[in-house]
Amino acid sequence: MNGGEFMVRVRRKEVVAAALPVQEHWLPLSNLDLLLPAVDVSVFFCYKIDIPHGDVDVDDEEEYFRGFGSMVRALKRGMAEALVSYYAFGGEVVSNSVGEAELLCNNRGVDFMEAQADVRLDGLNFYNPDLTIEGKLVPKKENGNCISWSFSHLNGEWQLDKLVTELKCGGVVVGCTFDHRIADAYSANLFLVSWAEIVQSKPLSVIPSFRRSLLNPRRPGFYHPSLDDMYVPISSLPPPNCAQPGADHRISRLYYVSSEQLTLLQTLASGGGGGEIPRRTKLESLSAFLWKMVAKSADVMENADKKTCKMGIVVDGRRRLSSGDDDKTALMATYFGNVLSIPFGEKIIGELTDQPLSWVADEVHEYLKAAVTKEHFLGLIDWVEAHRPEPAIAKIYGSGSSDGPAFVVSSGQMFPAAKVDFGWGKPAVGSCHFPWGGDAGYVMPMPSPARDGDWLVYFHLLKGQIKLIEDAASHIFRPLTSEYLKLADFPPLIT
């Protein structure tokens, strides 16, 4: 078995609504929410658990799943309580009279599925989430819903519809798919941590805020002309290219990068270091290296000397909009919604491949500088206001074309895997799964749960780009495996 050849059986599907009544109301999306396309983001968390079962008849599913059922009940109770504060996730996305998306907070609830998979946790192919995660361990969100959840029990000895009595090494996967127009990663993280706190009967560390006035446009509005190149009305984009038979296509992969390799990349990106404080961050350094790799993969394109390669980096604006104001900092720290910008750089392919890593890292740092300011985000809010109700989007999202490759890097260093503890211990591994439908690729580095300082890196790039990176940098990007995660070594958490 290659870790992807397994079956998943949905045992139960239901809707979980908020534990307390929610008065139906409309919640407008902010100007920054309106810049997000209708794409869904998935995250998943894997837990190594031995569920007690005793000697039971193989046909007595309810008794066999006694331990599993108690865990599910705790999750659903916690979900219902969490939706009282995070009521936006229990609503539906609808269109208003001018065609813009809005949120109907009607306590419709969230879809919640319980499933069983005939695979051991240490037998999952984490390296290839297209094979293991997609369509199996993360749910497909229904149209209009804001979020869907799945809870899967992994049992390496289940054969089709027959259960055996012995569970040697079980596991649980909690998967979630949410509408990116409703929440960015920061907001989703708030929800995940709050849900885990409620399940463990802990007080909420954060109460979310849906105060849209924090992102109101200015009167009169003003924005820098550079935003016209960073964001564009959707109507100005060329029609999507039809996939040709045999054409390259995007695939998803998961790797880990050791702390030693990250430090080495940072040293090289900083021009050698020489014992001084590095001039470039690890994220800038890794992004610069990938920019060179993706450019190199396009070096075989016709007229490559005239083609360009674009790379964007997602910037969170909460701290930038606060700008040293303690009260605003506290408010933005609890704000639920999208507060993102995607500045990007564009360089001739030959420049990126020929210049040293330090030169490329300097270019990354330079184009990021203009986007990490309060004025940038205030201007972006005003830019959207000036173009409403015409929908707009980050230009790089639709930029991968015959002009050259494009991809986006989004830092997942705040990904809260270690904090999503429902009382069974920390996840053995957690990651995003985001095969978005744009013309650009997507990369997200996250902290590794297996070794301090290491990173996990999720790739959604063209197959040819993945092959070149694996061929040229296999010493840096190593396939994520159960051996690296030490899944077989985990002790039982429930006895």
Explained architecture:
This protein is of the alpha+beta class. Helices cover about 25% and strands about 20% of the residues. The protein is built from 14 helices and 20 strands. It has helices at about 60-65, 65-85, 130, 185-200, 225-230, 260-270, 280-295, 320, 325-335, 350-355, 355-370, 375-385, 465-470, 480-485; strands at about 10-15, 25-30, 40-45, 90-95, 100-105, 110-115, 145-155, 170-180, 230-235, 250-255, 310-315, 315, 340, 345-350, 390-395, 405-410, 430-435, 440-445, 455-460, 480. It has a seven-stranded mixed beta sheet with strand order 14-11-16-18-19-10-20. It has a six-stranded mixed beta sheet with strand order 1-6-7-8-3-17, covered by helices on one side. Strand 6 (about 110-115), helix 3 (about 130) and strand 7 (about 145-155) form a beta-alpha-beta unit. Helix 6 (about 260-270) crosses helix 7 (about 280-295), helix 7 packs across helix 11 and helix 7 (about 280-295) crosses helix 13 (about 465-470). The radius of gyration is 23 Å and the shape is globular.
